[in-house]
Amino acid sequence: MDIARDPSALSGNAQPAVAAPVLAQPQEIRRADYRPPAWLVDEVGLDFALDPDATQVRSRLSVRRNPAGDGDHAIRLNGDGLAARSVMVDGVITNDWHMDGADLIVALPGDAHEVSVETQITPSANSQLMGLYASGGMLCTQCEAEGFRRITFFPDRPDVLSTYRVRLTGEKGRFPVLLSNGNCTASGDNGDGTHWAEWHDPWPKPSYLFALVAGDLVARRDSFTTMSGRKVDLAIWVRDGDLDRTDHAMRSLKKSMQWDEEAFGREYDLDLFNIVAVSDFNMGAMENKGLNIFNTRYVLADPETATDADYDAVEGVIGHEYFHNWSGNRVTCRDWFQLSLKEGFTVLRDQLFSQAMGSESVKRIEDVRVLRAAQFPEDSGPLAHPIRPDSYREISNFYTATVYNKGAEVIRMMRTMAGPENFRKGSDLYFDRHDGEAATCEDFVTAMEDGTGLDLSRFRLWYSQAGTPRVEARLEHDGDAAILHLSQTVPATPGQPDKQPMPIPLRLALFDRDSGDHGGEQLVVFDKAGDSFRFPGFAKPPVLSLNRGFSAPVAIERAVPQDELVFLAAHDDDPLARYEAMQSLTVQYLTADGGKAGDGDGRDAIGAAMAAILDDPALDDLMRGELLMLPGEAYLAEQLLVADPGAIHAAREGLKAWLGQRLEDRLVALHARASAVPYGLEAVARGARKLKTQALVLLAAGAPAVAAELAAAQYSAADNMTDRQGALMVLAGLDTPARETFLADFKTRYEGNALVTDKWFSLQAGSLHPQALEHVKHLAQHPDFTMNNPNRVRSLYMAFAVNPQAFHAASGEGYRMIADLILALDPINAQTAARFVPPLGRWRRIEPGRSALMRAELERVAAAPNLSRDTAEQVGRSLG
Ligand code: 0A1
Ligand code: ZN
Domain Peptidase M1 alanyl aminopeptidase C-terminal: where (predicted)? Predict the structure, then answer.
């Protein structure tokens, strides 16, 4: 066994002889430096004359000196790449202003004024997709976090809340639809080929929630009546041909509105709720007040083009953005260090929503898998940061799995300790107390303490300390009692060498080996460096099931005997714990001897457990699918102090091949059984589809000829994207002539559908095919590939960067390709470019040969002139 104990023990690996170049770092912004704004803006008037090549923006700001501010006689209006064409104070042109860097400073003699500024912007040239930009003939905005300052000069910080009146004027032919936040109060025709609309949002909001959309769009309309009986008009706006793919999104929206009333007592607060789908978008979606803007991939879905996973993602993201109306919009963030206040809480809310809409346990397992695959590596690498960071250089780099997913786990722990009813009291109090305010994480925790009665003093460490706590557990048997010995360490992370023990809520059960039962689950809140807990009444040593439901986001370190894992994998009544036992069984085997795989005994145990899972009549197929899933290579690498990605890949593929052979008959029978289930969106049919492709995946490793035949049949018979994509994924990884034929069929069958074309790129870039790297090189030259669309860039290069076998090619060519991509993309779309740095940033945890190659590529990026703030920060931290 060579399981990593403490990654922080690693001081470095494979230091190259040359010193790293000094990278000019953008200025650091610190949480401790927060000061209230000097000026408040009560009302904002914006007048847009829309034109893709020259949009005129006139602002009117009613500003007032903040009594809590520092009494400055000038107002700082942030800008980014703007020039003021005119500045007026109280209706009179003034020259009493100057630029400080990109910001506009306007002198103001009194305590309240009206400041007006005129700017001109070029949406068609905005490839960064921040501010106002053009996407497929329409104009739209993205303002979070600091995009508003690319539209007009403004105190662009989340603690300045204003009501907005917006007037949009544009060509009728190009922009028949003109939308902004709130309600449309008036509209008209100018008689010169242009028309206009005025929008008013009565709810004070920070500038990052401002939005406008102008385009040739059609709407699916519906309505929802809130719990107090108000009718809300709902509209989902898409391009003409996409309307028949919006049904699922609309259903999801109505379910979200209903659920937030029932689960959190939150009612919608405008007469209108608009969602717009755009194809060019840096992230998933954005919660602009009353006008959510979505990446098309989280809106459009029909059985022919969207997989079951896509359906779930649409439902989850629609929920997430909708829930922000309260957790984010009604109560917003004081500053960007508080990002997890809205994001961690909203992720928890969307997770609970999805749990309630589908299988609770399967959703929980999926969320834990995401946390481990994306957040644990972040927490143990050079980019580790607390869920409430202390400093940043570019805030876009902090929209991370830590702030979002670990942030959700931290609030989930409060819910576990308080119980759901008390937690609801805490959240009610939080919303009541801070409605209309820009709040802090501290405000949230205090409201939780006051509402639930919990003492969260030490628990606050979860907000300030980075790193995944490691909990060592040992069960001792003494007479008629079981004694659980626990100890914890929180690893050192950048800037945080010393950590304190944190309260860790662990749900646990002790099973009687003979009866297979336990006497009830218990909750232990473990908050010291070391502690012991005594459980009387056990004549024989029980079997421990620990961290049930993944009650704490920690790594449990315990040498669990194989027979106990087999017992729990078959008997644990907590589905997550059962999944965990299965994962541990496999992790123990695959990470033995530094990742070169363990003994035949361990493999036999996995084979027997898998066979039992395949045969267990009490399991539903969705859950069966979870239990059959092998731990991913990134998670396996995470278990090792220094990982050899080649060895891990070979060991995991070896196990798959062995399982595929050993279980061949069962898997073929399973494939046949599942193939007989007709398409539907209910759990039984979804479970069947999940298992069908999983069977193919194991067979592809162990019996490739059989798999190729079954996959071809599945592809050809498919009446839905889940089956077709699953079959094509397997075929794309096999060295068979059919591969090309089916890939070509897929491409032409969905010609013109951008989201399916993304899948076509991803399937090849993420495939197990030995030539995957060569394929990616060719695909980058494909006429359908473009650097200007983030979805397309991610579909090719992110799929590649998380394909361990291809990315970690021993030659270093994969690293070079990603570094080249970062350099080419950085001037076009810095936010997206910076997201490709973390895969290279793992170099300290990789075996020496590859490690040096990865580091060299990071240094090559660091040495490039004119790096964006986004990329410079990520590269600097990765090398630091
Ligand atoms: N608040 C959004 C995430 C988001 C952040 C930044 C963006 O800029 C490109 C876009 C979206 C959410 O949590 O959904
Ligand atoms: Zn969010």
Answer: 563-879
Calculate how far, in angstroms, residue 158's C-alpha sits from the geometric centre of ligand 2. 15
- The reply to whether 424 and 475 lie within a common domain is no
Residues comprising the chain, all counted: 880
> Hey, which of 151, 286, 292 would you mutate to test ligand 1's pocket, going by the most ligand atoms within 8 Å of its Cβ?
286
Contacts of 311 (CB under 8 A, 6+ apart): 248, 301, 681
Closest-CA residue to 336 (of 395, 404, 405): 395
* Position 172 in a domain: no
CATH number at residue 442: 1.10.390.10
Residue 423 and residue 366 in one domain: yes
Q: Considering only CA atoms, which of 798, 752, 747, 750 is closest in space to residue 136? A: 752
For residues 319 and 321, give the distance between their C-alpha atoms in angstroms, rounded to a whole number. Answer: 6
pLDDT tens readout for residues 104-163:
999 999 999 999 999 999 999 999 999 999 999 999 999 999 999 999 999 999 999 999
Mutational pocket test of ligand 1: of 144, 287, 299, 336, the residue with most ligand atoms within 8 Å of the beta carbon: 144
Q: pLDDT (tens digit, 9 = 90+) per residue, 682-696?
A: 999 999 999 999 999
Give the residue numbers marked as catalytic.
321
Centre of ligand 2 from the C-alpha of residue 220, in Å:
24
Q: Ligand 1 pocket check: which of 396, 399, 868 to mutate, most ligand atoms within 8 Å of Cβ?
A: 399
Please give the residue range of the domain that contains residue 398: 334-464
For residue 44, being part of any structural domain is answered with: no
pLDDT in tens, 533-549: 999 999 999 999 999 99
- Quote the ligand 1 centre to 235 CA distance (angstroms): 21
Shortest-distance Cα residue to atom 6 of ligand 1: 144
Q: Does residue 437 share a domain with residue 376?
A: yes
Which of 445, 464, 483 is the last residue in one of the domains? 464
Please list all protein residues whose beta carbon sits less than 5 angstroms from ligand 2, which is an ion.
343, 346
Show the tokens assigned to 299: 């809106």
- pTM for the model stands at 0.97
Pocket of ligand 1 (CB under 6 A): 142, 144, 282-287, 320-321, 343, 399
Same domain, 460 and 341: yes
Q: Whose Cα sits closest to atom 10 in ligand 1?
A: 283
**Helices 772-779/813-825 angle, 10° precision:** 20
Pair (455, 474) in one structural domain:
no
- Ligand nearest to the backbone CA of 342: 2
How far apart are the CA of 765 and the centre of ligand 2, in A? 28
- Assigned domain for 428 exists: yes
DSSP per-residue codes, 177-230:
EEEESSEEEEEEE-SSSEEEEEEEEEEEE-GGG--EEEES-EEEEEEEE-TTS-
- In CATH, what number is assigned to the domain containing residue 525? 2.60.40.1840
Q: Which residues of 210-227 are buried (b: 16+ CB within 10 A; e: fewer)?
A: bbbbbbebbbbebebeee
Looking at ligand 1, which atom is closest to the CA of residue 831? 9
Domain count for the chain, please give it.
2
Q: Is residue 411 part of a domain?
A: yes
Tell me the per-residue pLDDT of 174-207, one tens digit each, with 9 for 90 and over: 999 999 999 999 999 999 999 999 999 999 999 9
Q: Same domain for 345 and 415? A: yes
Rounded to the nearest angstrom, the distance between the alpha carbon of 795 and the centre of ligand 2 is 22
Is residue 450 located within the same domain as residue 355? yes
- Which of 38-52, 60-74, 596-610 bottoms out in mean pLDDT, i.e. has the lowest? 596-610
Nearest CA to ligand 1 atom 12: 286
Strand partners, 470: 489, 555
Q: Name which of 341-355, 591-605, 656-670 the model is least confident about.
A: 591-605
Last residue of a domain, one of 406, 431, 464: 464
Q: Which ligand is nearest to the CA of 829?
A: 1
Are both 488 and 445 inside the same structural domain? no
Q: Which of 381, 528, 595 is nearest to 468 (CA)?
A: 381
Interface ipTM: 0.99
- What is the mean pLDDT of the segment spanning 15-33? 74
Number of the ligand 1 atom closest to the C-alpha atom of 145: 6
